[in-house]
Fold this sequence. Notes:
The structure is a single chain. With 252 residues, this protein is of the alpha+beta class. The chain has a domain at 62-151 and 239-251. The protein has 4 helices and 12 strands. Strands 1, 2, 3, 4, 5, 6, 7, 8, 9, 10, 11 and 12 form a 12-stranded antiparallel β-sheet that branches. Helix 3 (45-59) runs antiparallel to helix 4. Residues 1-17 have low confidence and may be disordered.
Amino acid sequence: MLLCLLSLALAGSPLSAALTDAERRAAVAHASKDELEQAMKETPVPLLIEIGQQAVAALGTYAYRMKKRERVNGTMHEEQEIVATIRETPFAARLEFVRGPGKGRRVLYNSTLRKREFRVREAGFLSIFGGLWIDVDNRMAKKESNHSPMEAGLGNLLRRFKKDLDRATPMGGFGVKHEGWDAKGNFCSIWTSPNQGAGFDSATTRICTDLKSGLPSKVEAFDAKGGMIETYEFFDAKAVTLSDAFLKPEGL
């Protein structure tokens, strides 16, 4: 969940009205750690998600680094590090695997080219074959991940949170426990799904937020027995300017 300080009078007051992204950053910079913690605890989760979406929108086209591990078909895969470049509208994502399994791989999804397919170009010897279009429902697409490139990006992550929140509301909503600050200075909370996670992506989810950027820094999902389903860490999100070819097959 994402923070936007919507009142400069933080103490004793939940966040209640939107500021611009620049105003939010300024408010965070001048607030004490205790004030930030109190604001996070008192602000309704739907509003935090909404303001997180505003923070993503303020970036425009953006890039970030991501470390991820996922349990796929019962097996927890090795950690991968990926540089992701995202254009939210019209949606496009380019993923460059820089460490771990698949190092050197480049993946492109562009909704203006093919709605249900993404382009993959492997590294090394396999690169001589050029790129390959893969349907998002093909079993090859889910060999190393539970998610397709269509789901990449911080905007999609927030939409997943919002969808789960809406689904949980008629069931009494999520249980939310605020853990507080982690070792990296991010604020973490745990969401507990209704019905032990039945019908949801996970039973519990830990979400840590970098309050300076207003963006998620870490997301961890667990099953009903406490087993790890997936973990993502996000770094260095920033707005970027791209060439016309960067989000097209020839750019790979």
